[in-house]
Amino acid sequence: MGIMDRAYITNPEDLKKYIELVEEEKAFFKKKTGNELPLRVSRHWMKLMENDPDDPLRRQAIPRAEEFSLSREESDDPIGDRIHSPVKGLIHHYRDRVLILITDKCAMYCRHCFRRHHTGKSSSLSFSEIDAILDYLAGHDEIHEVIVSGGDCLMAPLETLRYLFIGLNRIDRPMVKRMGTRFPVVDPQGVDPRKVDLLSEQKSLWLILQINHVREMSPEFDSLIALIRARGIPLLNQAVLLRGVNDSIESQKSLSYALIERGIKPYYLFQGDLAEGTAHLRVPLDRALSLYGELSRTISHLALPRFALDLPDGGGKVNLEESPFVKRDDEYFYFKNGKGVTGRYPREKE
Asked: For residues 280 and 64, is the Cβ–Cβ distance under 8 A?
């Protein structure tokens, strides 16, 4: 076990040293077969958690047997990554931008994860696989923006990140880079300063965090964010609307205010994807739309994120504040995507 591994909990025995597991949590470990999203949580996160099964941080990190309850609408690939992947590790869903899954490892395996089919294998792209991605980018002049994610991009080896950036910078047109990471909030002291240096050297780079609750922002996180901002790296946040975590006006407002106070722009608030085993964390869309409507009337636009959802089966992103829905019936909301195609999202109950 390496130094980094000792900073993480991956089995229920170590978990019990911090919290008393409730029956629903114990049941997960009794039922698990090895095909589930594994347990991985940082000791830093455990120190922020309260010994309460309804604690917002605990609900995001500790698995429950509810994850074995699958609804008929859920999928192991809820936003259609596979059908938009022309090259291993590359998702080309929208014409002018692509997503690179540089690693499938995360600092914490969040229980609302929508890439459960991908995460948890602890591997990163090889140099030859990155070369294939770079060849694809070079042959598609319409691509202007690259989003590097995973897994968590900051969990990829330093040399892998450096190799990717060198290749991207050799492409003979401007290439905006977005880096998607939860590492700074899950384990701020584990972030390699050399990776921060590498990011700061890149032109047109934005760091996109995922912070879902104000209590995730610790003094250690604040110190890291101060370093990142001092290096000139702009920061945005993409939160996920989660039942029992941040599904109230009070929690959303406190999160947004805390973000802008730290120089982090609330960018997106996402409705939960229809990933297998996540129904217990999804907020029914009727209530989600009502909540966002109230939030938009009571908070400044600087602090207001955009509210969006990804339609199932690769239907694409829909901005809910602009066009809430085309119609709805007892079972579904119907939305029109950017290509004019109508998709649907279930009208789940509380």
From this structure: yes
Place of tokens 């609750």: 213
Cα–Cα distance between 40 and 256 in angstroms, integer? 27
**Residue 89, preceding peptide bond in cis (omega within 30° of 0):** no
Q: Is the pTM of this model over 0.90?
A: yes
What residue ranges of the chain have pLDDT lower than 70?
Answer: 1-6, 121-122, 323-324
Q: In 36-66, which positions are buried (b, 16+ CB within 10 angstroms) versus exposed (e)?
A: bbbbbbbebbbebbeeebebbbbbbbbbbbb
Pairing verdict, β 316-319 and 306-311: antiparallel
All structural domains of the chain with their residue ranges: 76-324
| Strands 90-94 vs 97-101: parallel, antiparallel or unpaired | antiparallel
Answer whether 232's CB lies under 8 Å from 281's CB. Answer: no
Rg (CA), the chain: 20
CATH of 76-324, picked from 3.20.20.70, 3.30.230.10, 3.10.50.40, 3.40.50.720, is 3.20.20.70
